[in-house]
Design brief:
Elements lengths: L7 E2 L3 H12 L4 E3 L6 E5 L3 H11 L8 E3 L3 H7 E2 L2 H10 L4 E7 L15 E5 L4 H9 L4 E2 L14 H8 L6 E2 L11 E4 L5 E4 L5 H8 L4 E2 L22 E2 L9 E5 L10 E3 L6 H17 L4 E4 L8 H11 L3
The structure holds threonylcarbamoyladenylate and magnesium ion.
The site of threonylcarbamoyladenylate has 26 residues, from β6 and β7.
């Protein structure tokens, strides 16, 4: 991608040092992760956290994910349990977030955790955010780098499209390889998946050798993204459709769909992994092309398809 905007920076040594300075001064920036781009600030700084909430227009009751460089750092702020240790061994660093109890002496900003005694923690895998975490002395609070209720960004350009010059520093780490937000699992009681992702329920069950629950819609506040409309491209979305109306785009999946002007294929070869990676990019493209709404065909509800369907249902306010 061409660096035509002054606030998109290549992740070289000099720019990593610049990013470090920005964070140490309680300012915020956008960083790439393997799932989606995050809007990051010092998790120990109330001042930095306030800036994140303000820029995202995020309600203060909705806590942020705290990103750590490794287990040793997590342990300083968080009480670990055996289930966490098993899942950590299997999947970290990677696209999974754990809800755990906060230590009493933890320095994590109360604003970041919305005053809760639990914290969402993640150890990301993306090379660039790892490099950044390695040169700073604090964890990073980083929600997805989008305005609240909108689509998460999966490239530096997406972050720019979302915030323009309201953000001074966007670190470019190319397209996020997964393209959907991390799986969130609550380990403070019976393991419960609060948000589905590329690390699926089945994979987690195998590691823990026990049945895992998915949160029900009704358990409002515990589950992330429970604000009614979420993952929204800014135009109406209708799911499980077979055709598009006038001025409507149709998101399709698999090789049986021939190319048409208003058809957007998530994966012509029928790969759910590829579909997950393309979902937000395609929705953004459709919005830019001025279609007035989006219809989506039925997507297979298996593997990462479950995470795709979870996002689509919320985008459709279903
Ligand atoms: O892939 C990801 O997880 C990305 C990248 C940047 O790491 N981050 C991300 O953050 O998706 P965010 O803030 O957009 O979504 C985090 C969700 C929120 O919906 C929030 O409700 C939930 O995590 N969450 C945070 N702390 C929680 C807690 N203590 N209990 C339950 N849910 C929590
Ligand atoms: Mg988000």
């Amino acid at each position: 991608m061409k660096n035509i905007y002054l606030n998109i920076y290549k992740p070289n040594h000099i720019n990593l040092k610049k990013a470090k300075k920005i964070l140490e001064n309680n300012n915020i920036l956008a960083v790439p992760t393997e799932t989606v781009y995050g809007l990051a600030g010092n998790a120990y700084s109330e001042k930095a956290i306030k800036k994140i909430f303000k820029l995202k227009k995020r309600p203060f009751f909705n806590p942020l994910i705290i990103h750590f460089k490794n287990l040793k750092e997590v342990e300083k702020d968080i009480l670990l349990n055996n289930k966490f240790k098993k899942l950590h061994k299997a999947f970290c660093p990677g696209p999974i977030t754990f809800i755990l109890k906060k230590r009493k002496k933890s320095k994590i900003s109360k604003l970041a955790t919305a005053g809760k005694n639990t914290v969402a923690i993640r150890i990301p895998k993306h090379n660039v955010v790892k490099k950044l975490l390695n040169i700073i002395k604090f964890p990073l609070a980083a929600p997805s780098a989008n305005i609240s209720t909108k689509l998460s960004p999966t490239s530096a350009q997406d972050v720019f499209d979302e915030f323009g010059k309201k953000i001074n520093f966007i670190m470019d780490g190319k397209r996020s390889s997964i393209g959907l937000e991390s799986t969130i699992i609550d380990l403070t009681g019976k393991p419960t998946i609060l948000r589905q992702g590329s690390i699926t329920l089945n994979k987690i069950q195998k590691v823990l050798s026990c049945k895992i629950k998915l949160t029900k819609k009704s358990k409002k506040n515990k589950s992330p993204g429970q604000l009614k409309l979420h993952y929204s491209p800014g135009i109406p979305v209708e799911i499980n459709k077979n055709y598009a109306r006038k001025n409507q785009a149709l998101i399709v999946f698999g090789k049986k769909f021939k190319h048409r002007k208003n058809y957007f294929n998530l994966s012509t070869k029928g790969s759910l992994k590829e579909a997950a990676n393309n979902l937000y990019q395609i929705m953004r493209k459709i919005k830019k092309r001025k279609f007035n709404s989006i219809a989506v065909v039925k997507i297979p509800n298996k593997g990462i398809g479950c995470a795709i369907n979870e996002r689509l249902k919320k985008a459709a306010n279903y």
